[in-house]
Amino acid sequence: MRRTTITVAGLAAVAMTLSACGRESADTAAPQTGESVKAGAATGTITVWAMGAEGEKLPELAKEFEAANPGSKINVTAIPWDAAHDKFTTAITANKTPDVAMVGTTWMGEFAGMDALDPAPGEIDKAVFFEGAQGTTEVADTSYGIPWYVETRLVYYRTDLAQKAGITTPPTDWAGLKDMAKAMKEKAGAKWGIGLQAGGTGSWQSVMPFAWSAGAELTKDDGKAYNFDSPEMLKAVQYYQSFFTEGLSDKAAPATPTTEPDFVSGKVPMFISGPWMMSAVEKAGGPGFKEKYDVMQIPADKKSSSFVGGSNLVVFKNTKERDTAWKFVQWLAEPETQVEWYGISTDLPSVKSAWEDPALTADKKLATFGEQLETAQAPPSFPTWEQVVTSFDKEMEKVTKTGADPAAALKTVQSQAESIGTGN
Hints:
Keywords: Signal, Transport
Largest sheet: 6 strands, mixed
CATH class of the largest domain: Alpha Beta
Structural class: alpha+beta
CATH architecture of the largest domain: 3-Layer(aba) Sandwich
CATH topology of the largest domain: D-Maltodextrin-Binding Protein, domain 2
GO molecular function: maltose binding
Number of strands: 13
Family: Belongs to the bacterial solute-binding protein 1 family.
Strand order of the largest sheet: 2-1-3-12-6-13
Order of helices and strands: HEHEHEHHEEEEHHHEEHHEHEEHHEHHHH
Helix content: 40-55%
Protein name: ABC transporter substrate-binding protein
Number of domains: 2
Distance between the termini: 44 Å
GO cellular component, one term: ATP-binding cassette (ABC) transporter complex, substrate-binding subunit-containing
């Protein structure tokens, strides 16, 4: 799909009249929004920072915007992921930020707290995005960008081994997942029932889907404080720990994941991950392996939920080309642009209507990711989240590897979270 024209009417597909862009709260009359973007073609030059493969591939798409807006120029700078956070904070401190940037969802609170981000224009319709993804743009009742692309986590499972274990229908609840893991090990010959991260960096992303499934809320006091030691969170951590204490998951799993070969060999017949693993396991498995596995939504306790990740697009306050910056961001959120970007990058669309395109509906596994995104959630946008969650990861490692008491671990996390504070 190649397009050569863009109009103000086209922008209106995502820039519809909206009275509020932020989350409503008890003490806020109306969420704040930024000034509207002026009508007309984009003009001027803007700099865009994007990380990893997105930074390498975005120039191809940016050329279309330039062709449709002859007075505009989009300069894309690719930034390595491992250097990105420090580069951003340094640029903010020095007041030398780009006009537009791709930003990790968990950085939003920190950068907004540094007063670096421009509030999103009020005409952007937040309803076009997946709710969980839209929530990642909002800090203290103000939206500071748009979700650019999204990802969520599902359970990958070997259908051939499941059949050998006597399972023909994937489970939909926690008890069913535990039974399936046991059957995979006892009847299908797998060494482990399911691969789960045994604590360590980023393990919160594996635990939280179960917490949300149990109905856990990560904040309390009208969203003004952390809430890690709730009964729902405890229930989820106890359930997660049980896979390790019952020998269904490897508590000594290597720090460097061996997911693809273990899944292909059948050593680990189930694991939880995002959409990028489809191509990875199919490459490792070779011809025909695509037919030997499937994906399913996170089984439910009270409901099925998962972690919503991805990246947002923001405009920095010190831009001298605000209108062009936001017009470029809005254009990247058009359904047609989102589908085209998926074709270029395989990044999943954050705009719900884009999922109706045959490019996405034709793949049943991909469609399951779209279904999970309807209920996927994100952590709170507190500036201190990254700092606090480091404590959570460390405590989860004790829970999974040494059998530490989940209740005591969560109390430790809560205590440290209260000591650190929300940063707001």
